[in-house]
Amino acid sequence: MHRNSQYKILKICLVFALLLAGASAGAQTLRGHVYALENGTKSPLVGAHVYFPNFGNGVTTDEKGAFAIERKDASVVTLIAGFVGFTSDTIRIAENKGDLEFILRENAVLDEVVVSVNRQGTVLSRLTAGKTELITTTGLAKMACCNLSESFENSATVTVGFTDAISGARQVQLLGLSGIYSQLLTENVPTHRGLLSPFGWSYIPGPWLESIQISKGASSVVNGYESIAGQINLEMKKPDYTDPLFVNAYGDLLGRYELNITSAAQVNRRLWTGLLLHGSTDTGAHDYNGDTFLDMPKSKFVNLANRWFYLNESGIQSRTTLRFLYDSRDGGQDEAHHGADNNFGHDELYKTKIRNRNIGIDNKTGFAVGDRESQSIGIISSFNLYDENLDYGSPVYGNKLYEGRQSSFYSNILFTSGFGEQHRYTVGASFAWDNYVTRFEDRLPLNATPSTALDRYETVPGFFGEYTATRNEKFTFVLGVREDWNSRYGWLFTPRANVRYNPLEALALRASAGRGYHSANVVAENIGLLASSRRFDLDQVNSLDIERAWNYGGNISAYIPIGAGRTLTVSLDYFHTQFQNQAVVDVERDRNSVFFYNQHGISRSDVWQADISANPFTGFEVFAAFRYNNTRITYTDPEGVDYEREKPLTSRYRGLLNLTYATRLRKWVFDFTAQVNGPSRIPGLNGYGSALKMSTSYPVYFAQITKNTKRFDIYAGAENILDFKQKNPILNPDQSFGRDFDSSLVWGPVTGRKLYAGIRLRMGKLH
User: Fold this and answer.
1) CA dist 33 → 56, 330, 623 (Å)
2) How far is CA 22 from CA 315, 319, 366, 409, in A?
3) Residue 648 carries which DSSP code?
4) Which of 24, 459, 620, 642 could covalently link to 601 via disulfide, CB atoms 3.0 to 4.6 Å apart?
């Protein structure tokens, strides 16, 4: 497609998105706070559930005990708030009522109310049909959490590692599978997909977030078919309900500094606006392992979001977000660390240059229809333009170049209604448009791959329906189906189901099953391989079929009284993923090449996980978890012989222990986290018959101390306290343009101990 034609289409899509932004929105939004009563003094409850009777959905309070929930049915006039160990409270909703207030009292008579139990960093939802974990702002504050990829160190569910030892890009794993199989949503709008997925996890600043919701396995069909392992939904700070000015400043001894500013203002009685700004720089040119390569690239990163919220007297709402980011990273060999006896010039060293840019707009709108508030039409629209430019190597000795542009438009229109209070349904239609214009070129003399276009164009209209049945708080059943027509892959049918049953108040049983799909961008999604001398075999890339997989899972959650009104929460779950087709990335057929082809044979993942959380005494919180992975993949040699192997660079198990102690009123908070990461298989470098080689298991420890006041918090901490680093993460660093150079075989930390400090400031009238 010609560039001028492409821009015309982009302009049309952008105009359409802006028109949708002017539409009406939603049902009545109720706001309020949930408090625990302590000797006549109210203390905010974090993680309390607020919900309508006979409905399975609900919301969870934030670190201030605040909540906002949509009331879609005017006939529902009561609202309930509950928390484990406390007696639920029910209030009647009056017309035009302002801030709602719940007061919860503990079930047992105690000398004092346990406030620390209310400050849980990770909460397991008791009401959702699927297994859903909520990471609150309290959990996000347990560590520096500079960006989303660093927000999961206290989670046993999500694992984060580096794609290679040079670029600083991180990869996320859920249910033993790469993050590309988990759908990332921002307030239920699909985001950071396609070319954005390798870097997108580090493009969302932690201080911008209100909470993170992690749903395992089959999830809602409303958001599309791209979820296989699960969904991760991000709730951002909202202009109508956040501090007028919030500042977070951070610095560490490795040379990273960042500043986050979020602000909000009411323009008039119908309009609010918010500005979210992030700026960071990494100036620490350090090479602690002495291989002449920087352990982390020098970087500059700017991220900006402008949010708008419209609400009129009749309850019509509209939320719009404008986004911009710029990412610059320079890594590889550095003159200062390459050795004084070398006379190499700048152009003769192995360098990496990464330049990424993104602009976008999204909008959520809706309006009530018919005679009941419970019936509504919602509209979601999103437009993104992303440019990616990667350069690995040297203009003198050869380099690898990858350039890509992704233009995407997404729209979702849905109608929600029901039959009484126990039966709800949502039907709708969606449209997605993706245009990828990419080019790969390998200028290394030993490979000499000419410039190759890997363009792809997809349009995906689809329609869906989802039915939810609830009965009191004991039973929830969700069944959804969708049918999409992909212009490249044809018809795609997506069935999914979730069920929750509470035979006892203290016991919840869940089961789920569903199907998902993923369109592979094999070069962009495996950029770690660019930081090697491997030759890319691209013969089958343009003929790759869409990836298809089934996911099945179950969960048991028990809430066991341990005396004095306290509860021990135990959760056990198992999930199985079976691929019908997978885009195989084969680095084992030939140690000097990488091959891409459609799966033959079996690719699957089995994951078992156990979580335990408790508050043994006032102010003290314990969370422990253990996860075991068994992820298998089948490789095929040129003669068609299949070889089933354990997926490489995937840890077999992970153990986690998090301890938190907070003094009265949380004036001081002490956090400690210990991880043990099991061994992972290192790819065989001498063919499929290579002897099995495993990495070592290793521990990682984190600690942080926080001093909280009403207006500011000061925190200081350490990551990787024992300074564990993978030995020799780069193969043959002294022959960076030779045949066996490879920095992609990363299974552990590539940087050592990090000491950091920061401050959080809140200004203006606090919510």
Assistant:
1) 20, 47, 26
2) 15, 10, 10, 17
3) T
4) 642
- Rounded CA gap, 304 and 578, in Å? 39
- What residues contact 294, with CB distance under 8 A and at least 6 apart? 166, 285, 286, 287, 331, 332, 333, 334, 337
Structure tokens at 525: 């999604």
| Cβ proximity of 662 and 622 under 8 Å | no
What pLDDT is recorded for position 566? Answer: 82
Reading phi first (left if > 0) and then psi (alpha if -120 to 50, else beta), residue 551 is in: beta
Q: Where are the beta strands (DSSP E) in 599-688?
A: 604-614, 620-636, 642-646, 653-662, 668-677
Closest CA to 699 of 736, 666, 724, 662: 724
Task: Give the C-alpha separation, 751 to 754, whole Å.
Answer: 8
Name every residue whose Cβ is closer than 8 Å to that of residue 164 and which is 6 or more positions away in sequence: 527, 528, 529, 530, 531, 532, 743, 744, 746
Give the pairing of strands 298-311 and 245-252: unpaired
What is the C-alpha separation between 393 and 444, in angstroms, rounded?
A: 8
DSSP state of 347: G
Tell me how far apart the alpha carbons of residues 484 and 494 are, in angstroms, rounded to a whole number.
Answer: 8
Are 725 and 736 in contact, with CB atoms under 8 Å apart?
A: no
Question: What sign does the CA torsion over 15, 18, 20, 23 have?
Answer: negative
Rounded to whole angstroms, the Cα distance separating 223 from 228 reads 12
Q: Are 553 and 177 in contact (CB under 8 A)?
A: no
Tens digits of residue pLDDT in 547-565:
999 999 999 999 998 877 7
* Longest CA span, the chain: 82
Report the distance separating Cα 64 and Cα 42, nearest Å.
12
pLDDT at residue 112 is higher than 60: no
Residue 163, C-beta contacts closer than 8 angstroms, at least 6 positions apart: 169, 170, 171, 198, 526, 527, 528, 744, 746
Burial class (CB in 10 A: 0-12, 13-18, 19+), 306: middle
Give the three-class secondary structure for 691.
coil
Alpha helices in 659-752 (DSSP H): none
Looking at the DSSP bridge assignments, the partners of residue 212 are 135, 234
Question: What pLDDT was estimated at residue 360?
Answer: 96
Please write the tens of the pLDDT for every residue from 309-356.
Answer: 998 877 678 999 999 999 999 999 987 766 544 445 567 899 999 999
Torsion of the alpha carbons at 575, 581, 583 and 589, rounded to the nearest 10: 100
pLDDT tens digits for range 634-674: 999 998 899 999 999 999 999 999 999 999 888 999 999 99
Judge contact between 213 and 236, C-beta under 8 A: no
Q: What is the DSSP string of 492-540?
A: EEEEEEEEEEEEETTEEEEEEEEEEEE---TTGGGGGGGSB-PEEE-TT
Of the CA atoms within 13 Å of residue 193, those in its CB half-sphere come to 29
Measure CA 304 to chain center: 19
DSSP sequence for 396-442: TTEEEEEEEEEEEEEEEEEEEEEETTTEEEEEEEEEEEEEEEEEEEE
For residue 104, give both structure tokens.
């919860």
Report the Cα–Cα distance between both ends of the chain, in Å, rounded: 50
Q: How far apart are CA 242 and CA 332, in angstroms?
A: 41
Pairing of strands 209-216, 132-135: antiparallel
Q: Tell me the chain's radius of gyration from C-alpha atoms.
A: 26
Three-class DSSP category at 7:
helix
Give the list of residues 6+ apart from residue 325 with CB closer than 8 angstroms, or none.
Answer: 203, 301, 302, 303, 304, 356, 357, 358
Pairing of strands 449-453, 398-419: unpaired
